[in-house]
Structures are given as C-alpha cells and as structure tokens.
Automatic annotation (TrEMBL):
PROSITE patterns found in the cross-reference section: HTH_CROC1
Pfam families with a match to the protein in the record: DUF5753, HTH_31
Protein name: Helix-turn-helix domain-containing protein
Domain HTH cro/C1-type: 18-73
Superkingdom assignment: Bacteria
InterPro entries documented for this protein: Cro/C1-type_HTH, DUF5753, Lambda_DNA-bd_dom_sf
CDD domains with a match to the protein in the record: HTH_XRE (cd00093)
Length: 288
C-alpha cells in the first residue's frame, strides 16, 4: 500500500483537515501559533500542504483543538506518517517543482494553457532537452538530463492503460512557431503532438495569431482536478524562483471561466490538428 501513497496529496488533505479543526474551534492561525510557540507562517504552511508535517505537529495541534476522538487523532497521525513518505520523483533528487509533480500524479484531469511552448506532458525527449537547455543556460548537462527523465516519467500518466490523465491543452500559435532546437526537431515535435491529440483522453486546441487579443495573454497556467471530492481543484502558475498555487474557490472559478473563453476562441479539435499538421509540413520543407 505504501507505494501507492502520494505524499503531496496526503499532506494537502491533512492540511485541509487541520484547517477545518482550527476553524471549528474558532481560532486564528496567529492564536494557534502563540499557543504552540511557533511562527504563524509555519501554521499556514502546514495547512496549505506546502510543508512536511510530523506526527508530533499533529499531536500538538489536536491538543490545542481539544480533539477527544482518538480515532480522528489516529487517522490524522497516519496521514502525517504517509505524507512523509517519498514519491517516485524524489529518487531524482531535488526537483524545484516537486509539489506540482505530486499534484499532477494524483490528478484526474488537467487543463493547460501555454502561450510559448508545447506542454511538458506532450513533449518529445529531443524537444524537452533543447527547451530546458535553452531556458536554463547555466544548468549542467547532468541536471538537464535529470529534468528530462522526470518529464518523460510524468508522461506515463498520459500513456497509462488504466485511468490515464484527462488532458486538455490550449496552445498559442507562438508555441508551434518557436523553433526549439532546429526545424527537423520541431517537425517531429508537431507530428508527435498531432499523434497524441488523437488519444481519446487528450484534447489539443490552437489559438492562431489572427485571433488577436484573448484571455490567455497574461501567461501560462494549469488547472488540476482530483478524483476525490475532498481535494479541491488547484490553479498552478509557474514562476522563475517560486511557483503559485491557488486553491480558493473564487480564484479557481475565475481561471476556469477564463479557460472556457480560451477554448471557445480557439480552433476546434479537427481544425487545430490540421493547423498543427500544416506547420509541421512547413518545417519539413525547410529541412529538405
């Protein structure tokens, strides 16, 4: 059973439960921090699932919240123990976006908008190598290879025989026109994109340049949804030095509505597939 435990999701779920207990007690995070002689930021990080939580933390918090049901305490303690196990991605060492990988690994569906590049789950190995090397010019070759391996491993969610990730991606035409690596590599990448778009659980749409201004001009983001109703949806926005995770219902709703506008303004699935295939042919002509 341990191998099937997703520590990121366990930590997040535990944090939600601890927040619920605090709110039932009518206490603020600041009040709890004062009682335990810790910083308010620690309580906040425990509740949002961004910090590893120990069984001692759970015991102390349950004491503050006066939780008398031993079954609840035992359940929370077990979740804390599970949350400290390592996911598959930890075997690759320090991965900057490990929290995101943990969420993606457990997600049922993923909606992605990317204005600049092909999303990681749909990249070829060669495209990923060239993209990472270009985006992180001071990164050692060994670290680039590690990142590529992680990206390829993440793609197993798409190829899984059972319960594959439901992926919906909207791309700006710029992501197809930007020559990452070389034109031959781009042709292979776009042909791969067309191939992947034919999977029943993968949807790819393109917003052409001629569409002009649209709701995605503010930048890339992803919306993750989970099979368990207890796990709220998450909006993920990647940053250079830190990433942003939005979980408030109002924030998720705003990004979801924006995504619906993007889907409506994009070419439909068949038009998008043909559009990508046509650009792939242009790359092929350059390489002959």
């Amino acid at each position: 059973m341990a191998s099937n435990v997703n520590p990121t999701v366990r930590r997040r779920r535990l944090g939600q439960e601890l927040r619920r207990l605090r709110e039932l007690k009518g206490m603020t995070a600041e009040e709890v921090a004062e009682r335990l002689l810790v910083s308010q930021s620690k309580i906040s990080r425990l509740e949002n699932g961004r910090r590893s939580i120990s069984q001692r933390d759970v015991r102390d918090l349950c004491g503050v919240y006066e939780v008398e049901d031993h079954r609840i305490v035992d359940s929370l303690m077990q979740m804390a123990k599970d949350s400290r196990q390592q996911g598959w991605w930890h075997s690759f060492g320090d991965i900057p976006y490990s929290v995101y990988i943990g969420l993606e690994t457990d997600a049922a569906s993923l909606r992605v908008y990317d204005p600049q590049v092909v999303p990681g789950l749909l990249q070829t190995r060669q495209y990923a190598e060239a993209l990472i090397a270009g985006a992180l010019p001071e990164t050692a070759p060994a670290d680039i290879e590690k990142r590529v391996q992680v990206r390829m491993r993440r793609q197993e969610r798409i190829s899984a025989a059972e319960n594959p990730l439901r992926l919906w991606t909207v791309l700006d035409e710029a992501a197809l026109r930007r020559v990452v690596g070389n034109r031959a590599l781009m042709r292979e990448q776009l042909e791969h994109l067309v191939e992947q778009s034919q999977l029943p659980h993968v949807t790819v749409q393109v917003i052409p340049f001629e569409m002009g201004s649209h709701p995605g001009l503010n930048g890339q983001y992803a919306i993750l949804e989970f099979p368990d109703a207890a796990d709220s949806s998450v909006v993920y926005i990647e940053g250079v030095t830190s990433d942003l995770y939005l979980e408030k219902a109002n924030d998720v709703q705003k990004y979801s509505v924006m995504y619906e506008h993007l889907r409506a303004q994009a070419l439909n699935v068949e038009q998008s597939r043909q559009f990508i295939a046509d650009i792939a042919k242009e790359y092929a002509e350059y390489t002959h």
